[in-house]
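Quick question: what would this complex look like in 3D?
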Amino acid sequence: MLNVNLLTLFPEMFPSTLGQSLSGRALDKGLWSYNCINIRDFADDKHKSVDDTPFGGGAGMVMRADIIESALLSIPEENRGRKIYMSPRGKPLTQNLVKELSQEENLTILCGRYEGVDQRVLDAHDFEEISIGDYVLSGGEPAAMIMMDACIRLLDGVMGNAHTPDEESFSNGLLEYPHYTKPAQWHDMKVPEVLTSGHHKKIKDWRLDKSEEITKARRPDLWDEYKE
Ligand code: SAM
C-alpha cells in the first residue's frame, strides 16, 4: 500500500490517467491512494499569491518557500515519507529508483510551476530532486504522474501473478526482446520459427540474444554497463 501526498497548484489534475486502466483499478482496490494539498490554500494575502519575482532579476516567477512549507507541514510528519521535488535538474528516474520508491509506504511529491521553487524550502526540508528526462515541462504534475505510474505497477497485487517484472526492459540491464502474437503469419511476415518450436531453452537463448542485440544498437550506455 502506497500513499502519495501531492503538493500542487493544480489538484484537479489528479488522478487523471492514473484513474484509468491498471493504476485506476489498483486505486479502486485501495492498493494505493493519493492526497492532494493545494499550495494556494496556504497563501496569506487576499490575492492568494504563491510566487514572486526572483532575487537577482531574470524572467519568470518563483514559488515561495514560506507558502510551500506551510503546505508541507499540513501533512502529519509520520505520513510524509520521502520528500521529492520533481525537477529537470534532479537525478534521473530509473527503473532501480522506481523499485526503491515503490517499496515506500508514503511519498510526498512537490510539483513545481513557473521557474521553479525557492531553493531554501528544498534545503530546509531535505527534498530529493528527481527528473523524468532531459527536457523541460511546464509543471511537475505530469512528471509526478509518470513517476507514480511506474511505481504503482510494481506494487503487490497490481499486476497479475503471471507477470514477471524481472524480464522487463532495464530489470536485467537490457532492453526487452521483441514480442509476437497470433496470427503466426501476417502479410508476408512470419513469427520467428524458434518461438513456435516449444523448445524453452532455445526460446530463452533467442530472447537473450535479441535483447543484447537491441540494447547494443540502441543504448550503448546501457550496453557498456551490462558488459561490466
Ligand atoms: N526553470 C526550471 C529549469 O530551467 O530547470 C524549469 C521550470 S519548469 C518550467 C516548471 C516545473 O516543471 C519545475 O519546477 C518542475 O517541477 C517541473 N519539471 C519540468 N521539467 C521536468 C523534468 N524534466 N522532470 C521533472 N520535473 C520537471
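Answer marked as accepted. Residues 86-89, 111-113, 115-116, 131-133, 135-140, 143 surround S-adenosylmethionine (CB under 6 Å).
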